[in-house]
Amino acid sequence: MKSLPLLMLGLACLLPLPATAGNSQTLVSPAALPAADTRPKVFLAGSIEMGKAGDWQRQVQQALADEGVLMLNPRRADWNPAWRAEADEPEFRRQVEWELAALEQADIVLMYFAPGTQSPITLLEFGLYARSGKLLVAAPAGFWRKGNLDITGDRYGVPRYDDLPALIAAVKQRLAAQRAR
Description:
Helix content: 25-40%
Number of helices: 6
Mean pLDDT: 89
Number of domains: 1
Distance between the termini: 51 Å
Structural class: alpha/beta
CATH topology: Rossmann fold
Low-confidence stretches: 1-21
Order of helices and strands: HEEEHEHEHEHEH
Oligomer: single chain
CATH class: Alpha Beta
Largest sheet: 7 strands, mixed
Shape: globular
Strand order of the largest sheet: 1-2-4-3-5-6-7
Radius of gyration: 16 Å
Number of strands: 7
Strand content: 15-25%
């Protein structure tokens, strides 16, 4: 039955957190983005570079499990490196369009640059959203373009943190401040 794996893939795109979690949820590309979900949306931008960056998104998902957010995660389990990074490649286009739409919908863009990676797409997204007020960024020592991020972040008021735990704490603080309004 050929449709079963596709059905399972579709179901895997909306991943609830473990039973102990609060009402947070993670939506994984390419699942449809919800129009009516009123929870704060946190886009998990950052290093993926299959094979170079660990699954730091899982740490964030666990840390924000009780925060009542919808996390938008571009890391796809079904990513195929054979897909050409060209606009006429249907799955590549689908991924890029999902990410752009999710970034626009996000209330917070959590951005993590893992040491030992280059993360060119995340650098592009940093530039797109540096003036948005949505960004919270961690670029630990060892990220190859940390200086660019620091200088640009200083110019546009982008909060930056030393590591992933500090970034997660900052996201929680921002969520608390948003709830208090």
